[in-house]
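Write out the 3D structure for:
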Amino acid sequence: MNTKSTQFRWFLAVLMFLISFISYMDRVNLSVATPEIMKEFSFSKMDIGLLQTAFFLGYSLMQIPGGIMSEIFGHRVVITVAATFWSIFTALTATCNSLPMFAVVRTLFGIGEGPLAPSFSRFIYRWFNSNEKARGASFLLGGVFFGPVVGPAATVALMLAFGWRSVFVIFGAAGIILAAAWYYFATESPRHNKFVNAAEVAHIEGDNPEATQPQKELAPWRSFLTSPQFWAIGIQFFITDYIMYVFLAWLPLYLMEAQNFSLQKMGIAASFPWAALCIVTFATGYLSDKLIMAGVSKYKVRTLSGVIGLALCCVCLYLGAIATTPTMNVFWLTLSLGSLGLTFNAGWAACIDLGGKFSGSVSGWMNFWGNLGGVAAPLLTAWIATNYGWQSAITVTSAFAIIGMIAWFLVRPERPLVPKIASTPQSCLPGKQNL
């Protein structure tokens, strides 16, 4: 009898990494192609800010519905449909020839990608042992942040060889292939997966009997909305994502306009902050799980990591804004975005701690607020940079971190929003929803 665990969950974690990677490559591609698109269509900074905001508007509106869908229909179906949908509209970006057409396609792209993160949060809850949650989250976030690491250089290379439109077609096709792979390999529960043996199922579900319950139920939203930490986890992520999306939307153009980088040099320099963020995210996931296994409280591991990450980001971002050389500017920006790896990992792991079997809904709520930051960041940064200069835009962004630090102190991951002893399965039939 084979008693050795199959470890198939880590294969799915890598597949999750790749899907997340492609999803963020699709976002980065627009920001890297921005100089060429602005030149071809005579778009202003405000026009590009509008296109970035169009994506985030569609994306943020699908966060809470995406979390609910993942709990009702399952992560396998929702992720497959979402990845296929957004990949189609990624490819269609290549056909755009006017500002309204770009805006419509980017909004639909955002709607398609919206359910991804909350559905993956649900997957992590169902497929990973309680001592592996942060590492599971690091694969989700690692893919997200690795996209911008290789994205600028890869996108520039494709643009120089084939033009900016080729980028969107190639990555749209890659997304559809990965969506098919997820549908084939992933199942809602590890016990129903032909690639998983009994030893791995026992490891995953042994300390989490709730994960074995097949009933579909809605989260107790009325209870959630009266919880201060439910609001705090959203507010801190609004700030965290706001800062990150300033980097995502404007770093390439900022380096070229404010620091006088060429297109080729920008493609390399813009990858450094994202590489730091990716490394810190994986390291934080590993260390967080080890500390919790060693008996350190989740408050110290999650909450204090969130606060420290934002504090370091705030200081380094300000130092980047006042740096007098391009080299020092990139150095401080790299440390600033890298520091957010502490906060991002803490946030997603805390959603699983707080939400449990409703982690899809809690993650959707947090990411909804985060991407409202994504809606605000491109336009507000464009307005400040246009009227007051890039230094003012970066300085204002750094100051916002203080709000996120305050919100984090209200988050207590060791106190779930729905205690396990009170989590009684309910039917999803009308009249029996716990609203």
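Residues 209 and 291 are 23 Å apart (CA to CA).
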